[in-house]
Every structure is written in C-alpha cells, then in structure tokens.
Amino acid sequence: MMPAKCLNQWLHRQRTDPYIREARLSSYRCRSAFKLLQLQESLLPTGGLIRPGHVVLDCGAAPGSWSQVSDFKLPLW
C-alpha cells in the first residue's frame, strides 16, 4: 500500500493538473491525449504527424487515449 505522504502528493497533483481536469471534461481517458493533439497541431504546416496513407498502431494501448484521439479527432482518409 502507498504511504500516506505519497498518496497525498499524488492526489494534490491530480487535483491541480490542468490537463487532467481538461481530460475529464473532454471525456479523454487520460492526459496524454493532449500530447498527441499538440503534436498533430504543431506539425500541421508539414502535413501533420499522421498523414494520408499512414496506419496508426498503438502498442501497449493502456489506457488507450492515443487510440481514442486517433480514432475520433484525427482526419479520416
């Protein structure tokens, strides 16, 4: 079992992290979904991270937020 101090630190981090809050509001599984969205947006001038003809393979997809974003938010070709 986790010591009380570590648990309190984790809870504080969970409550104050803006990405965790936004993930809950956006129905994403976890905060890492925003990293993929950020990468895709920053690379849009060069065609994006995922381009037409690319295949997305999310190995070890737990909790699956990258799969969730690639399935619902990225353009389908």
From TrEMBL:
A single cellular component GO annotation: mitochondrion
Keyword S-adenosyl-L-methionine attributed: yes
SUPFAM superfamilies linked to this entry: S-adenosyl-L-methionine-dependent methyltransferases (SSF53335)
Keyword line: Methyltransferase, rRNA processing, S-adenosyl-L-methionine, Transferase
Tree of life domain: Eukaryota
Tagged with keyword Methyltransferase: yes
Gene Ontology MF: a single term: rRNA (uridine-2'-O-)-methyltransferase activity
Domain Ribosomal RNA methyltransferase FtsJ: 28-69
Protein family (similarity comment): Belongs to the class I-like SAM-binding methyltransferase superfamily. RNA methyltransferase RlmE family.
Protein name: rRNA methyltransferase 2, mitochondrial
Lineage: Eukaryota, Metazoa, Spiralia, Lophotrochozoa, Platyhelminthes
